[in-house]
Amino acid sequence: MDKRWGIILGIGLLFAIGVFSYNNIQSPTNKQKNKVKDQVEETYQVKITEEKNCSKEKRLYYKGEKQNIYTYCIDSIKIERQGKYIELKSLEQGEDTLYHLLESLKKVEVYKDGGSILYEDIKESKQSVIPFRILQCNRIDDTNKEKNQDIYIGIKEMEYEKGFCEE
Predict the structure, then answer these.
(1) What mean pLDDT comes out for the span 76-84?
(2) What is the C-alpha separation between 17 and 14, in angstroms, rounded?
(3) Closest by CA position to 136, among listed 162, 159, 165, 161
(4) By the 8 A CB rule, do 32 and 40 touch?
(5) CB neighbourhood size of 159 (10 A)
(6) How much is the pTM?
(7) What is the rounded distance in angstroms from the CA atom of residue 71 to the CA atom of residue 61?
(8) How far is 143 from 163, CA to CA, in rounded Å?
(9) Alpha-carbon span 128 to 135, nearest angstrom
(10) Which residues have C-beta within 8 Å of that of residue 109, sequence separation ≥ 6?
(11) Does residue 126 contact residue 147 with C-beta atoms inside 8 Å?
(12) What percent of the chain has a predicted confidence (pLDDT) above 70?
């Protein structure tokens, strides 16, 4: 009888240690997810300046190593940081800011080109006075090797058009 209690107590103790360890030790991915969650909760206010005479063509806004940002009928995209509006392309952590901004917008459509997604600033999120859309490309090229991951930021009438996500 004493042996059984020892085994039961030992198993119980191991179980308790396992539960305690699991709850208190987070993997790096969980830590990163919590960090992202905290940053998403701080909302970004966006100040969009529309083009006066919209040409309805994409314009290169920022050229990155792996990802370009284009505008569509927009002259300026400013993000509010510490009470000041800063041009998105001037932010040191522009990609993180853009990622967090996308998290606060509504997915309008997912395209079958590899998974490009159209987001919209809707009434519930209202990140900007002027409604806007963001197209996050995820188009696979003809060789099925490379993905176009460019970003298009435009007015609320912007749609996925021929020439978007292709270069």
Answers:
(1) 84
(2) 5
(3) 165
(4) no
(5) 12
(6) 0.68
(7) 6
(8) 18
(9) 16
(10) 117, 118, 160
(11) no
(12) 64
Residue 52, both tokens:
């006066």
Residue that the structure tokens 């987001």 belong to: 119
Q: What is the pLDDT of residue 31?
A: 46
Residue type, 46: V
More confident residue, 65 or 107: 107
Give the model's confidence band at 161: pLDDT under 50 very low, under 70 low, under 90 confident, else very high: confident
CB 164 within 8 A of CB 58: yes
**Beta bridge mates, 155:** 132
Residue-wise DSSP of 53-68: S---SEEEEEE-SS-E
The count of other CB atoms within 10 Å of the CB of residue 122 is: 13
Tell me which of 2 and 130 has the higher pLDDT: 130
Query: How many other C-beta atoms lie within 10 A of the C-beta of residue 43?
Result: 13
Q: How far apart are CA 28 and CA 31, in angstroms?
A: 5
Chain-centroid distance, C-alpha 68: 15
> Which one is predicted more confidently, 79 or 118?
118
Using an 8 Å Cβ cutoff, are 47 and 152 in contact?
no
Interhelix angle 28-41/94-104, nearest 10 degrees: 70
Task: Give how far Cα 51 sits from Cα of 57, 69, 120, 142, 143, Å.
Answer: 11, 16, 19, 34, 36
What gap in Å lies between CA 163 and CA 161, rounded to an integer? 6
